Amino acid sequence: MAKKKSTSQADRTIQGGVHANRDAHIGDQYIYITQYLAMSPFSPPANLTELRTAYLEYVRRTHRALDLKGIPQLEAFSRELLLEDVYVPLLARPEAPRGETWERRLAGRAFDLQALPEESEAVLAKGEAHPLRVEEALGEHSLVVVLGDPGSGKSTLLKYLALRLAAESDAPLPIPVPLNAYARALRSSGDINLQAYLPRYFAGQAQRVADLAPLFAAALEKGQAVVLLDGLDEVQDGRSHLVHKIETFAGEAVARGNKVMLTSRIVGYRGAPLSAHWSLYTLLDFSRQDIDDFAARWCLAFEKGVSGDTPEARATAEVERRALLEAVGANPGVARLASNPLLLTILALIKRQGVSLPNRRVELYDLYLETLIRSWNKARALDRYPVGPELDPNEIIQILGPLALWLRQENPTAGVVPQDMLLGELARVYMSDDWGMNAGQARTQARSFLDSVHKYSNLLVERGQRQYGFMHLTFEEMLAAYGIYLKGQLDLSHSLAIIREHLTEAGWRETILLAVGLWGLAKNQPRVAGEVVRAMLQMDCAEEDTCANLLLAGACLEDVGETGLGRAASNEVAAALNSAMLDRSLAPPVQRDAGFILGRLAGSSAEWLERIRPDLDDFVQIPTGEFLYGDEKQRMTIAEPFAIARYPVTNLQYRRFVDAGGYDDQRWWSADGWAWRSGRLDSQTPKEDKVWLEDRPPENRSEPFYWRDVRWNNTLAPVVGVSWFEAEAYCNWYSVQPGNLPVRLPSEQEWERAARGTQGREYSWGDEFDPQRLNCAEYWAKQNDLIDVEKWARWVRSDSFNDASTTLVSQFPQGATPEGICDLSGNAWEWTGSWYQVEQVNRVMRGGSWCDDHWFVRCAAWLSPPPFSFSYFVGFRILSPGILLDSGC
After folding, report:
1. DSSP state for residue 738 in the 8-state scheme
2. pLDDT confidence of 357, banded at 50, 70, 90?
3. CA-based angle 802:805:809, to the nearest 5?
């Protein structure tokens, strides 16, 4: 070969995940709590031993299972999910935020640091305090306040601490009490102090437990109690008096050696904070590692609850775990919600009930809204006592929809507005035709509504001094989608005007998608949704926004499906996407993105696959005979006919092997392949090649390396990130599946015969290079010649390279061979079955890729890496030896 580039280490960079907001993940939650507390175990007098036993049994009985009340999706579930089985340890950062920490102020937004409020900048300036497990905070301090967002796990944390302390034989005595219950007692029973109230609370709750006053008094007197006070923010009336009572009790308790922990929402705490003697800790959102841990624990606990602890239940749990994590990772909106423990729990429940995620997200978010509006106050505290009136979701949405739409238009970046502006807009809503109130009534109703929703639903929250916004960006987007929907109830043109105004703005994309989902799915009006999407196709988008309307219409189709748009509108969108994919006058990323939407549609159903790529599994027959081979065009003979796949193996096809457990079944692997899969090959590899194995340790060899990366995992794009061993195992598995031909990897001579024909053409289509016929570096760079190494290197450093990727296997029909074999030039290098040289150390790959110049996409070009190498530009194609019986292959 006349010219050869080496594959740089940069080509093999592992795109590792980042655990946002956390320095490290802390492991097993079954570490004994007592090791953190540095307290003496409670040793009661002999006459209280039986009472202690009965009380701790009550605590264990009460808190052993996850409380599912208040979550409609599981209220009918009859089995227990044990709290210890699903609990993921919470981390907190020691800080006393002004209003909220800067992370919480983001509320799911990607912020420009210049736009952060002054108090957030101050937090950034002082640096981030090191996060730690909440139990450690209780070990370091005697008085601890744990602050957190709605749904961040505050009450569950206290239940878990009480449960663990009750289970450990050498632990201090846990005393968990909801503060709203104490506040009710203060209002109804006079000025009772907190220590006197503690046994009274349990007297009204516990069965078969005698008067606990002597037990609690003994533990508190000895300094052997941990008092857990839940929900300071839930107390709306008489808060200052309650705080005074808490301070008095806590001061006396700590003086004797006890510890007190209290929880509160962040903003709710500011109204009447505790003294400086308390150490404040702010809970952090779940990191990706926490989400992974939760998925594993939750799915296993759920299946055990349904079927018992059986091998079948564990296998089902693993399938559900993978599906849940794919749902979380496939859509940014869903991923943002999953960082909140309560919202992640609801997501897991909905996913378990068969709702397809992340598509049809509008159904998911509707369930979220219903849960947060109607059910939040049912049993969210330790004593399961509602803390506010039941709210009507329909009424709330009728108000919050227009409000969220106004907020999106008023301040879409920060998502917060001053209270007086918010009240003014609420009043305008109440004065609209839908409500018909006069100005005075509207102002009164606006204040009442804001107070009720702020206190009880946790959807609209105070984010700083008299600054309001929605709990999370996702709920703002969903409610704003309702605002768009409501605008068009009488005249659709009002909704279309809003969509047209914000069509090309990235910050409005999710809102528009959800609005179409409301019409098509939630409100069962697919004809209206279809008209909206048809109107999108006609909207003007020029210059850098060219085809933004088409891609958004395609995203709508992908999101709600044919059910949500109707068949006619769906076909129009699909046809427009196909035209854009093939339109070489458009920017390459636009062509690729249009194709990728079609690819994802094909992966969503067999019907769409049949409409988009019915020949995906076809083979093309190649006869025997002479052909010209190599740069020297030697005469060679193919002695046996063969049939080669029309396309390289796609992610959709390879998924069948992954889903069938191919990576864990040794039958499909050669001895060397299984040694690679299991890690035994690592120690036998020459030093110069070990970098490949170090970059991909054994735990990362259970699927293609880029399997979960959206840039490389499109359904109809070539699978990449596979070693030669994986390609070989796929062939072995494929060959024994019912109805399949026996296959193997082509030899490099067979591959070149299929690519070059009999006369030795330079490229798969002919002798003249044309960057519009294939996916290669010149196509992305819009240049005709990047063969000079310096030119190519400049392109690699450009934005064009960062935009580049593999494309659909059907995207360049002009680059097919005369027989209709596609992508033999460009897109992805393809492993062959041939060794490089007689030493049989490296394997040969052919075809060039999306990041190679036109020298390397020639039919005679080759590379020879070791069989355990991998990259985002390496895939493979399969071949069946012999004559196909079905001539219509």
Report:
1. T
2. low
3. 165
Residues 6+ apart with CB under 8 A from 433: none
Angle of the 49-63 helix axis to the 154-167 helix axis, nearest 10: 140
Pairing of strands 143-148, 259-265: parallel
CA distances 155 to 88, 101, 151, 238, 381, Å, are 13, 20, 9, 22, 6
391 in Cβ contact with 374 (< 8 Å): yes
pLDDT computed for residue 433 by the predictor: 82
**What pLDDT was estimated at residue 463?**
65
Q: Containing H/E element for 634?
A: strand 634-638
Residues 745 and 751: their CA atoms lie apart, in Å, by: 9
Contact 340, 107 (CB under 8 A): no
Phi, psi of 261 (to 5 degrees): -120, 140
Average confidence (pLDDT) over 717-723: 98
Provide the β-strand partners of residue 468: 417, 462
Global model pTM greater than 0.85: no
CA distance 300 to 289: 17
Kindly state the helix (H) or strand (E) to which residue 112 belongs, with its residue range. none
Q: What is the Cα–Cα distance from 719 to 756, expressed in whole angstroms?
A: 23
| pLDDT tens digit sequence for 775-795 | 999 999 999 889 889 999 999
Sheet order of strands, 460-462 included: 417-418, 467-470, 460-462
751 φψ region: left (φ > 0), alpha (ψ -120 to 50), beta (else): alpha
Nearest by Cα to 97 from 242, 265, 221: 265
103 has pLDDT over 60: no
CA 396, 402, 406, 412 dihedral sign is: positive
Phi, psi of 637 (to 5 degrees): -125, 130
Asked if pLDDT for residue 100 goes beyond 90, the answer is no
Tell which phi-psi region holds residue 661, choosing left (phi > 0), alpha (psi between -120 and 50) or beta: left
State how far the Cα of 776 lies from the Cα of 513, in Å rounded to an integer: 33
8 A C-beta contact, residue 811 and residue 591: yes
Rounded to whole angstroms, the Cα distance separating 815 from 881 reads 25
Amino acid at 663: Y
| Higher per-residue confidence, 81 vs 162 | 162
Average pLDDT over residues 92-100: 62
- Looking at residue 69, its pLDDT comes to 59
Query: Which residue did the predictor score with more confidence, 754 or 241?
Result: 754
Residue 856 identity? F
Q: Centre a 10 Å sphere on the Cβ of residue 847 and count the other Cβ atoms it contains.
A: 33
**CA–CA distance, 824 with 866 (Å, rounded to integer):** 21
- Alpha-carbon span 632 to 2, nearest angstrom: 10
Beta-carbon contacts of residue 76 (< 8 Å; ≥ 6 apart): none
227 contacts 258 by C-beta, under 8 angstroms: yes
Residue of 315, 283, 284, 318 lying closest to 298 (CA atoms): 318
Dump strand ranges (E) for 734-878: 829-836, 842-846, 862-863, 874-876
**Would you call 82 exposed, middle or buried from its count of C-beta atoms within 10 A (0-12, 13-18, 19+)?**
middle
Whether the pLDDT of residue 34 is over 80: the answer is no
Supply the pLDDT for residue 384. 54
Q: Specify the 3-state DSSP secondary structure of 875.
A: strand
* Alpha-carbon span 606 to 598, nearest angstrom: 13
pLDDT tens-place string over residues 373-386: 765 555 455 555 55
Do residues 457 and 151 make contact, with C-beta atoms less than 8 angstroms apart?
no
